[in-house]
Structure formats: structure tokens, C-alpha cells
Amino acid sequence: MTVIVRDFRAGDAEGFAHIRHLALPFMLSTPEGITYDAAHMHPDAHYQPLVAEEDGELIGTAQIGIVHDSAQPGQGYVNVYVHPDRPGRGAGSLLVKTAEERLTALNAKTLFSWVLDAPANRAFAEKRGYHASRSAHFLRLDLANGPLPPLEEPPTGVELRSAADFADDPRPLFDLDAEASGDEPSDVDYEFTNYEAWLEETWRHPLFSRELTSVTVVDGRPAAFSAARTDGGTRYGTVMTGTARSHRGRGFAKLAKNDSLHRARAAGFTEAFTGNDSGNGPMLAINKWFGYEICATEVRHVRELG
Predict the structure, then answer these.
(1) Given the DSSP bridges, would you call strands 293-304 and 110-116 parallel, antiparallel or unpaired?
(2) For residue 138, which phi and psi values (nearest 5 degrees)?
(3) Dmax (CA) of the chain
(4) Could you give the domains of the chain?
(5) Distance CA 56, CA 221 (A)
(6) Over the stretch 91-140, which tens digit does the pLDDT of each residue have?
(7) For the whole prediction, is pTM greater than 0.90?
């Protein structure tokens, strides 16, 4: 039996998403989303999904690319996931080798990789020259059975809307997302300035739910938001919750997230997922208040090439 690594094809989408779900069930992954990402990432990202195949069966995946929206050049990423029932066949090693060769050809000098916080996974990364950096938690909330905080009436001058209300002009949501994302804890300093790329990769993404994305509006302008994605079934995830710097400390992010969670439960979603950097104490506290529980941890690993 021979394992090969090759480029992703459209017909691989279902198998690719299935492996991602088995290896990382805390993130929403669908064939439609995988195919969309492959077709719509910014050209400067050089995004390349790869698959490992053994005798016609997909047994591993990788997503690789260049961090193009940073002032620091030469940063790349490689995230590898192998089917949990197909270990020890060399798929992970071959995916990493292929990824490093391709990223080196694109002048990458530093590679970042998220690794599940388990002894075997961390040993795999360390053996290949990657060292541990910051960590992040996956969190889960039982929407079907767990209680949610009651909906609160917004203060005077504040209202709750959905992202769908901004369909004619989503630019104010981009501006808010860019400001909030710029303050997220990270190994990489992003320059979140490309509105057209945001429209393509976020606003029009098939998993993005404008109806379940809640926005706290103050004096007619978005002040906080909780961005939602769904898998087309019963799983819902908040992928970003943030507040404009001038409005922080007033509970507006919590107001938006609570509204979004209630919308999701009313729409029939039964599981809610989110993720937080382990150093993001304020957001972890908010999610604990909602009833989220940590279900897994990833550790970002870094390798300097050359």
C-alpha cells in the first residue's frame, strides 16, 4: 500500500470535510465550505489544500498558505489532520514534507501550525523542528438542553440587529471586524484592510449566517458583534465576537452574543462551538458565563526554515 500526496480536487470535498470533522469535531467543516475556500482565497495567500491518499482512499488533509495580510513577509502556515483510524501510514509526515517544500518555494521563512494538545501530536510536531508557542481552547455549549441567560432589553440608544440588516452596505461591519480582530491575541500582526477580500472570504462564505450574526448598534453605528457560522445541520459556531475600542467595558459584546445564541436555538441548532486564545481572559469569562465548557486545546507551533 502506497501513500501519495496530491492537490485537492473538487471531488475530494466530502472526504476532506469528513477527515477534518473526525480529527477536529469542534470546528465546522462542510464540503461546500472546503470547495469555496479553495476557489475564493486571496491570490496572495497561495492557499493550497492538499490530500494524502492511500490506494484511492483519502486518509489525510493539509491546508497551507502564506500570511499575506501581515506587514512581516515570509510567514506561512501548515495545518495537517490525519484520519484517526489511519495512523502510522506516513500520511502526516508526507503532508508536512510536501507543505514545507511548497512554502519554501514561496519564500516562507517562518511556519505556523496548530497542533492538538495531545502527547502524540506534540511529539510529531517537535520531531519535525516545530516548537510550542501560544495555545487556544475550543469550547462547546449544549444549546438544546443547557439554559441560556435571559434576553436583556438594550439600554436607551442601543438596539440589536442582525448582519442581514446591513446587506445593502456591509462596510460598517467590515470596519468593526477589522478593529476588533486587530486586537485579538496572536503570533502574527495582521493588517486587516482589504474590504473586497473580506466580502469574498467572510461575507459571502457559504457557512456565514447573516441572520444569526447579531450586531449591537449604538447611535446608528455598529459597536459590537458576534459573527455566526452554521454547518447546514444542527451545529452553530461563533467565529468572532468583538467590540469597537470606544465602546468596550459596557457589555455590548455579551449583549450581541446572547442575542445570537437565542436566535440560533430558536432556529433549531443544538450545539454551539467557539474558540478563544488561552490568554483572552475577558472572552473566556464571557463564554463561561454563557455555559460554554472547554472541550479541547490546540497549541500553535512554530518552525524557522533555513
Answers:
(1) antiparallel
(2) -95, 140
(3) 67
(4) 3-108 (3.40.630.30), 141-296 (3.40.630.30)
(5) 53
(6) 999 999 999 999 999 999 999 999 999 999 999 999 999 999 999 999 99
(7) yes
